[in-house]
Amino acid sequence: MTTREDCLARDALDPLAALRLQFDLPAGVIYLDGNSLGARPTSALARAQQVIAREWGQDLIRSWNSAGWFDLPKRLGNRLAPLIGAADGEVVVTDTTSVNLFKALAAALHMQANTPASAARRVIVTERSNFPTDIYMAEGLSSWLARGYSVKLVDSVDELPAAIGADTAVVMLTHVNYRSGYQHDMAATSALAHTAGALIVWDLAHSAGAVPVDLNRDGADLAVGCTYKYLNGGPGSPAFIWVPLRHQASFQQPLSGWWGHAAPFAMAPAFAPTEGIGRALCGTQPIVSLAMVESGLEVFEQTSMAAIRAKSLALTDLFIELVEQRCANHPLGLVTPREHARRGSQVSFTHPHGYAVMAALIARGVIGDYREPAIMRFGFTPLYTSYADVWDAVEILRQILDDAAYDIAAKRDAVT
Amino acid sequence: MTTREDCLARDALDPLAALRLQFDLPAGVIYLDGNSLGARPTSALARAQQVIAREWGQDLIRSWNSAGWFDLPKRLGNRLAPLIGAADGEVVVTDTTSVNLFKALAAALHMQANTPASAARRVIVTERSNFPTDIYMAEGLSSWLARGYSVKLVDSVDELPAAIGADTAVVMLTHVNYRSGYQHDMAATSALAHTAGALIVWDLAHSAGAVPVDLNRDGADLAVGCTYKYLNGGPGSPAFIWVPLRHQASFQQPLSGWWGHAAPFAMAPAFAPTEGIGRALCGTQPIVSLAMVESGLEVFEQTSMAAIRAKSLALTDLFIELVEQRCANHPLGLVTPREHARRGSQVSFTHPHGYAVMAALIARGVIGDYREPAIMRFGFTPLYTSYADVWDAVEILRQILDDAAYDIAAKRDAVT
């Protein structure tokens, strides 16, 4: 049986342990919700102060050039690129994941509309268990285009091969499922889509900074993702969109704002998309929230996704092991795959009173979250989570369950 | 002839003079570019620090509820509403002006598609001189819908009556022109659109906080606008969208993200728009940039748009008077209307070497900006601009022109 001492010993040997010092974490809290909102890099406050007091307050409008505000979406995209197997000039940090997904889906449909078999390809295939906003954006786009586009939902991964066929324009999948923590095989599923003549758009919301991703190697066509979860960019920090070099010339999307124009300050009345990744931009970005994304990325540059992944699997393995040992007499159901290759950086357990148990955990300083139906989510961020944290979290869970110390009438607050 | 002493005397009597103390302005600068990026309210730094250090750093995911992050777009919308003649529950602060315009145009086209005469209404009418991103977004939307929609550009306000007709679905105008400072008659133009059976969408980018606006009184159908110009929300701070109560039930737009869902945390796979203004929301917002919008709005609550407008007209009248007196022997051409009702809160002059003259002004601490072709823009923000500032700016302009102290080969940087 693993003991707390064993966990402390592992922490003492953990090559990532020192990175925790670069985060501002509240005392008395074990934070297992970095999959929803990443913790604050200590440097983010100073970065924001610099932007607000110096760049905005003192340099004012000049900062668009002198402080590099104009280039920030591309510069941050280039810093993020190595984490997801993207090349320089393939990523911009901008807008929201939902809006970027709209751009990516629209562009993918447009690419398909220009291929010989286009007339027959009018279906976007995705999973019913996908994060809802992804499905909503696909519905919004397809219904507004009104050319017979539709969204097909599959109920399990096993149904994908049969669902993807000659009528499929785009396969849209979230790489790591927000609720179950299931991780798709990106290479195999991309190949499946391509064999059927479809394009594939990946949502990396729960992947970027959480698991190794190699978009170019694994044949992805387009991708979007989030910077406020595992990348620790701050609450609601702008999202990203990836357009590989090979698709950039044919990438066209309807949110054709001036930031995507070839010469935005020529003030020409006709839209002409710029070359390269810039055509995925639309309007003026929220600079303070955008700038703090850099503070999160700087931490990743001190380690590697391989090291992060090794610790992530160790943490999630340990959590599963300890919960199953120490809470064995309670009705907990593991939702997350045991198989490493199919697991993200979270562990989800069902419990009949999942919401109430999670509320009790949060009240005792173990912060995870809850997702319908009956699922308690625990996210493990190797940059700031220790093995002892895992032990302590499970111990508190055990106490709550053994004592039935939760209120099944607990009021339900929404948490993102 | 007005003297500097006259200007100082007017400052001494100015009821808004004290509000300047609520802004952090750099020493040695006369800032006449608040129409591009508003100056920093002093309180914005503390507000950001609170959000970053306390709400994000210490309270983490709990702040979505405990710090009111979820409600921020609506709460800020309600605080902004009185400045534009909107009611409670009609405005949200979210996304970019470009993205909000896409939503508004799409919703307006959808409303028209459900009216009896819909088949014939496929044209969006706007001005060639409109801010380009507005035209680009209209082009993007209309070309993607591919049902025969198109954008018709008029070359002057006088052409609007003839251009708006039985084929017009939507008239889309920017209330105050970014380049000339021309202000449309919102009531008359809205009536013109309605008489022709069209809807009218107003862009308030250069109006909100700059001139009195009364959207409900003046018959607007939908509106969008910017918070980082006259509202002083910070660089790229999120924009706003106004949907009047009478149109909310029929307001549908394709960027149907989870923040616009009736029950976002039910995680249902089908989109169902929420009641009310929330259906104009899409994805998760950049909270730090969003929160600082409140610091700008708080300043407005200490005065009135009537008082701001009175001083704005006095400042722009004074600037025109002094430039025409003191720089009379130079080839300056007034672009902005002299008529008060047709003027925004800026003054634009052409000069054959406008870019070089503006560069020389900026080098001497008078910050305006330049717009093609040959236009020098000077924005006047009554909250932090004094009459003596106007005198001093004109004096420096006079010196530069008299001495020909500008470099006509000056390198051109882009400024937004």
How would you briefly describe this protein structure?
Two copies of one chain form a homodimer. The first copy, chain A, has 14 helices and 15 strands.
The largest chain-to-chain contact, stated as pair and per-chain residue counts, equals: A-B, 97 and 97 residues
Secondary-structure element series of chain A: HEEEHHHEHEHEHEHEEEHHHHEEHEEEH
- Radius of gyration of CA atoms of chain A, rounded to a whole number: 22 Å
Task: Name the quaternary structure.
Answer: homodimer
Strand proportion of chain A, as a percent range, falls in: 5-15%
* Amount of helix of chain A: 25-40%
- N- to C-terminal separation of chain A? 35 Å
Class computed from helices, strands and strand pairing of chain A:
alpha/beta
Main sheet summary of chain A: 7 strands, mixed
Strand order of the largest sheet of chain A: 4-10-9-8-7-5-6
Q: Tell me the number of strands of chain A.
A: 15
Instruction: Report the average pLDDT across residues of chain A.
Output: 96
Please count the helical segments of chain A. 14
Shape of chain A: globular
Parts with pLDDT < 50 across at least 5 consecutive residues of chain A: none
Summarize the structure in words.
2 copies of one chain form a homodimer. Chain A is α/β, with parallel strands linked by helices. Chain A has helices spanning 4-13, 43-58, 63-66, 72-80, 97-113, 132-145, 160-163, 186-195, 245-248, 287-291, 293-300, 305-326, 354-363, 387-402; strands spanning 23-24, 30-31, 40-41, 91-93, 123-127, 150-154, 168-174, 199-203, 222-225, 240-242, 333-334, 346-350, 366-367, 369-371, 375-379. In chain A, strand 14 (369-371) and strand 15 (375-379) form a beta hairpin. In chain A, helix 1 (4-13) packs antiparallel against helix 14 (387-402). The first copy, chain A, is globular and about 65 Å long. Chains A and B meet through helix 2, helix 3, helix 5, helix 6 and helix 10 of A and helix 2, helix 3, helix 5, helix 6 and helix 10 of B.
